[in-house]
Specification:
30 strands, six-stranded mixed β-sheet
C-alpha cells in the first residue's frame, strides 16, 4: 500500500518546527524528520514528536455537547449550533452588541483568527473581542511599535543568531520552552560568540551561558538602564548611528544616567562587576543582539522594560544592522500571526488600527460593509474576562483555557461561571469547556489546512494530512454556520485558501502586508517572510503620501512605479529592478522562477537569497499533498507600505562554516535573477522580507525612537505578610494550560504535576524537605504543590509552572496588575508567603 507523506508544521510553539506526517495502517499518524525546514532542521522536542497522540478519538472531543442540568450531554450539530445562535441573539437583543464577548487564541491559524475578528465585528457587531496572546507578547509588540514603528517578533531569521558576536537573552528558557532552537545558541558559542542569560533561575539555558545574571524578579528595567548608563559612562555609544538613525536620545540618556551601577546593584542584586562585564561582552563585538521573552514582558511595566532593552541596542548602533538588533521570542504557535489579523481588541487585519479611519475604510470595503458599522476598540483580554457576567453576558470562546491560564484564575473562573451563556470551540474538554453551555468539537492541526506565522515573521503552510473523525468540524465551518443562523449568509467561506485570499486583500498596504503571498508560494518556497506586498501600486489610503515621506524613501522605487510605491513594486530599498506581480496574477501564483525559468525553484544549490536563503537545503522538496490550486483574486486596495521603511531583504555575508546559503552583497540579493525571482511574464514576485530595518525604520521619518523610561517597582512588592516573590513559567514536557499535553501519557510521565521550586535556605526556614507539600499564598488565593529544592533559584524567590488546574494552579496566585500600554498582566512577579502543609 502506498502511503502519503505530508510535510507540515508542529502545532505547539512559535518555532513551528517542520515535520512529516504519514498515516499508519492502524489509523494512527507517524511523525518523521523534515530536514528541509531551516528552523529545526528535522529536530523535534517531545511535545512535537508526540503531538499525534491528541488526535486519538479516546482523547479528544468527537461530538457536540450541550448542557442538561449539571451535565454536558451529546447533541447533534444542528441542535448545538441553534443553541449558540439563540444564546448570542438573546444577549444582543437584551444587552446590545457589547453584551456579547469573543475570546480567541494564539493557536488559531491566520485564517481562523481573521475570520473570528470579522465575525465579531460584522455578525455580532461587538467591540468586545480579544485573545490569550495578550498574555504573551503584547508588551514587546507595544515597545517595538513605539521604537521601530512596526512589530514583528524577530526582525531577522533565527539563522542569523549563531553568526552574531554576542546575544543577551532576557527572561527566556529556550532549552525547555523551544528545545530545537537551543542549537542556535550552541552554534553561536562554537563560532566564538558570547551568550549572556538573564534569569532569576539558573535554568538549563542559563547553564549554557558564558555569563548568567540572576536579577530579582521585576527589576529587568533597572538592569537595562544600568547597562545603558555604563555604555554612556565608558564612551561606548555609537554617536554617528544615534545622530543619523534615531531621535529622542537626550531624554533617554538623561533617564539612564539616573541609574548608576551601585544603585542598580541594590535594586537588582546583580553586582557592579557583572554589569561591567556584560557591557564589555555586548559592546566589543562588531555585532550583537538582545532577545527578550516573557520574563521582562509579563510585567506591569513590561512595555517600558522592553523599551529600555531596545534603547541599549540603539545606543550601541545594533538595531537595523546585519546580524544585530533587538528581537522578541514569540511564544504561542501562531502568536505572531494571531496578533496581526484582527482578533485583538484594537486591531484590523494587516496590523491596522481599528481607530484609524483609513484602515476602517479599506477593511470595510473588502468586507462589503459600511465603515461606520464597525465597532471601535474594546477591552483587553484580562479586562474582558473580568467583565464577564456583568457588562458581558455571553461569550464565544475559541482555542483558549483561561480557567488555568488567566491571572487571578479563581476570580476569572468565578466570572465565567456567572455568564448567562458560554459556548466553547475546542479539540478537548478543557477546564473552561467543562463550564460551557455548548461545546463544539473542532478539527486539529493535522486535519485541516491553514497558515501560521512563526516567531521570525515567516508565513507557513500547515497541510491537512488526515481526515478528521465523524462528528468534528472546522472552526471556519462553525463560524460560517453561526453567521448564517444570525442572518449573514455570505462572506464566511469554509475553504481556508479562500479565506486567505480575502486576508491578502484586507492586509494589503498595512504594516503586516501579506498581499504578495499565496498558498502556492508557501508550498514552493517553504514559507515567505512578511511584509510581502503584491504588485499593485495604488496610492496608499492609510500611509503618508509620497510628499511626506523623508528623503531616501524613493531610491528603492521600481522604475515606472509611482513615488512612494517602493514596497509594492519592488520590495525594500536597495532592491535593483525587482517589480512584483499583481496579487492573484499568474505570475504571483507561479512563484519565483528558477535558474532556467522554471517557476518555483530557487537559484543556487543550497538556498535562495532575498528572503528564502535557507529554505531549500534538501535536494528535493517533499511532495505537496492536497489541493494547492491558486484561486485568482484581484487586489484593489492600497499596497504601498514604504519599502524603505522596512530595510532591505539583502543577506549579510555568510560566516564560513555555516549552512545558510551563498553570501550576497547588500542591495543585490533581490535582483530579478535572484531567488526572489522573476515570474514567467518577466516581472518579479516580491521575495518577502527576512530582515527588517537595514536601511530605515518603519516610522514616518525612518528613524528609530528612544523611549525615556525609569525604573519603578513591581505592582506588588514583598512585605512582612508576603515576604517572598513568586515567578512562573513552563517546563519542557508541558505546554501553556496543559489542555492537550496533559492528555499525552509520555509527557505526563516526564512532568506529572505542579511543584514549588525554592532555595535550600528558604526550605530550611520553612522546615520543608524535598517532595513535601508546600502552600504558596498570595493576596488572591492559595496553591499547594510538592517542594523542589535547588540552589538554582534566588533565595528570595520561588517558581511554579502554570500548566495545571486544581490545587496546584499557579495562576490562582498571580497578579492581574496591567501594563498601562500593552494591558499585559504581571504574571512574572507577585508577593507570596510559604506555609508548610502538615498531614
Amino acid at each position: 500500500m502506498q502511503t502519503t507523506v505530508t510535510p507540515t508544521h508542529c502545532p505547539y510553539c512559535a518555532l513551528q518546527c517542520g515535520m512529516n506526517l504519514t498515516p499508519a495502517p492502524d489509523g494512527t499518524v507517524e511523525v518523521s524528520e523534515r530536514a528541509d525546514f531551516p528552523v529545526n532542521r528535522g529536530a523535534l522536542c517531545g511535545k512535537g514528536r508526540t503531538a499525534p497522540a491528541v488526535l486519538a478519538s479516546n482523547v479528544r472531543l468527537t461530538s457536540p455537547l450541550v448542557r442538561s442540568g449539571d451535565a454536558l450531554v451529546p447533541a447533534s450539530w444542528d441542535e448545538a449550533l441553534d443553541r449558540i445562535a439563540a444564546g448570542l441573539r438573546r444577549t444582543r437583543e437584551e444587552y446590545g452588541p457589547d453584551g456579547v464577548g469573543v475570546f480567541g487564541g494564539g493557536g488559531l491559524t491566520n485564517e481562523k483568527a481573521y475570520t473570528l475578528g470579522k465575525f465579531a465585528r460584522v455578525v455580532l457587531g461587538t467591540s468586545q473581542i480579544d485573545y490569550n496572546g495578550r498574555f504573551c507578547m503584547s508588551s514587546a509588540a507595544a515597545a517595538g511599535i513605539k521604537a521601530f514603528g512596526l512589530d514583528r517578533g524577530l526582525p531577522f531569521p533565527l539563522e542569523d543568531v549563531p553568526k552574531t558576536g554576542c546575544v543577551i537573552l532576557v527572561g527566556s528558557n529556550l532549552a525547555e520552552t523551544m528545545p530545537p532552537s537551543l542549537r542556535f545558541l550552541t552554534e553561536l558559542k562554537e563560532n566564538g560568540g558570547t551568550l549572556i542569560v538573564i534569569d532569576p533561575r539558573r535554568t538549563k539555558t542559563a547553564e549554557q551561558a558564558d555569563l548568567h545574571l540572576a536579577p530579582r524578579p521585576g527589576t529587568d528595567l533597572a538592569l537595562a538602564l544600568g547597562l545603558l548608563h555604563l555604555v554612556i559612562a565608558e564612551g561606548r555609544v555609537d554617536e554617528e548611528y544615534v545622530q543619523e538613525r534615531t531621535v529622542g536620545w537626550e531624554d533617554a540618556r538623561a533617564a539612564a544616567m539616573a541609574h548608576w551601577p551601585e544603585h542598580v546593584e541594590r535594586i537588582t542584586g546583580v553586582s557592579v562587576p557583572e554589569l561591567r562585564e556584560t557591557v564589555r561582552l555586548f559592546c566589543e563585538p562588531e555585532s550583537a543582539m538582545v532577545l527578550t521573552a516573557r520574563g521582562p514582558e509579563q510585567q506591569s511595566k513590561g512595555t517600558d522594560t522592553v523599551g529600555a532593552w531596545i534603547n541599549l541596542c540603539l545606543a550601541t548602533g545594533r538595531a537595523g544592522r546585519p546580524l544585530s538588533g533587538y528581537g522578541c521570542l514569540t511564544g504561542q504557535g501562531n502568536g505572531q500571526g494571531g496578533r496581526e489579523h484582527g482578533q485583538k481588541a484594537d486591531q484590523l487585519p494587516g496590523y491596522r488600527k481599528l481607530d484609524d479611519p483609513a484602515a476602517r475604510r479599506h477593511v470595510a470595503e473588502v468586507w462589503g460593509v459600511d465603515p461606520d458599522s464597525l465597532p471601535g476598540p474594546g477591552r483587553s483580554a484580562y479586562e474582558l474576562l473580568d467583565a464577564l457576567g456583568t457588562d458581558i453576558r455571553s461569550l464565544l470562546l475559541m482555542a483558549s483555557n483561561p480557567v488555568v491560564s488567566a491571572p487571578r484564575a479563581a476570580h476569572i473562573e468565578e466570572r465565567i461561571r456567572s455568564l448567562d451563556f458560554l459556548a466553547v470551540c475546542d479539540v478537548v474538554l478543557s477546564e473552561t469547556a467543562a463550564l460551557a453551555d455548548v461545546v463544539l468539537p473542532v478539527t486539529q492541526w493535522a486535519e485541516e489546512t491553514g497558515t501560521t506565522t512563526n516567531l521570525e515573521g515567516r508565513v507557513l503552510l500547515r497541510r491537512r494530512a488526515i481526515t478528521p473523525p465523524d462528528g468534528v468540524r472546522t472552526d471556519l465551518e462553525v463560524l460560517h454556520e453561526l453567521a448564517a443562523r444570525l442572518g449573514v449568509e455570505k462572506g464566511f467561506p469554509t475553504d481556508p485558501e479562500e479565506v486567505f485570499e480575502e486576508l491578502r486583500r484586507a492586509s494589503a498596504g498595512g504594516p503586516a502586508d501579506y498581499s504578495g503571498i499565496t498558498y502556492r508560494r508557501l508550498a514552493e518556497e517553504n514559507g515567505v517572510f512578511w511584509p510581502c506586498p503584491s504588485g499593485e501600486t495604488e496610492e496608499p489610503a492609510d500611509r503618508p503620501s509620497p510628499a511626506t515621506e523623508p528623503a531616501g524613501a524613493a531610491p528603492g522605487r521600481t522604475e515606472g512605479a509611482p513615488a512612494g510605491a517602493a514596497a509594492t513594486a519592488g520590495g525594500p530599498a536597495g532592491v535593483t529592478g525587482a517589480a512584483a506581480a499583481p496579487a492573484g496574477s499568474a505570475a504571483a501564483a507561479r512563484g519565483p522562477a528558477g535558474p532556467a525559468g522554471a517557476a518555483g525553484e530557487p537559484t543556487g544549490a543550497t538556498g535562495a537569497a532575498g528572503g528564502t536563503d535557507a529554505l531549500a537545503s534538501a535536494p528535493e522538496r517533499p511532495a505537496v499533498t492536497g489541493d494547492t490550486t491558486h484561486h485568482p483574486v484581484t487586489t484593489t486596495g492600497p499596497t504601498s507600505y514604504p519599502a524603505a521603511a522596512l530595510g532591505t531583504t539583502s543577506q549579510p555575508a555568510t560566516t564560513p562554516g555555516t549552512t545558510s546559503g551563498p553570501a550576497t552583497t547588500p542591495g543585490t540579493a533581490n535582483r530579478p535573477d535572484a531567488a526572489g525571482g522573476a515570474a514567467g511574464d518577466g516581472r518579479a514576485v516580491h521575495p518577502g522580507t527576512p530582515r527588517l530595518f537595514l536601511d530605515r525604520f518603519a516610522t514616518p521619518d525612518g528613524r528609530a525612537r528612544f523611549v525615556s523610561v525609569s525604573h519603578r517597582a513591581t505592582a506588588e512588592e514583598p512585605d512582612d505578610e508576603y515576604p517572598v516573590l513568586l515567578t512562573t513559567g513552563r517546563v519542557v514536557a508541558q505546554y501553556q494550560s496543559g489542555a492537550q499535553t496533559r492528555r499525552v501519557a509520555e509527557l505526563n510521565a516526564a512532568a506529572p504535576g505542579p511543584f514549588v521550586e525554592l532555595h535550600p535556605r528558604l526550605a530550611a526556614r520553612l522546615g520543608a524537605a524535598e517532595g513535601d507539600p508546600v502552600a504558596v499564598v498570595s493576596r488572591r488565593g492559595r496553591a499547594v504543590a510538592p517542594a523542589r529544592i535547588t540552589a538554582a533559584i534566588r533565595p528570595d524567590t520561588v517558581f511554579m509552572p502554570f500548566h495545571w488546574p486544581g490545587e496546584g494552579r499557579a495562576n490562582t496566585l498571580t497578579n492581574p496588575a496591567l501594563d498601562p500600554t500593552s494591558r499585559m498582566p504581571e504574571f512574572k512577579a507577585c508577593a507570596v508567603r510559604l506555609e508548610a502543609v502538615r498531614s
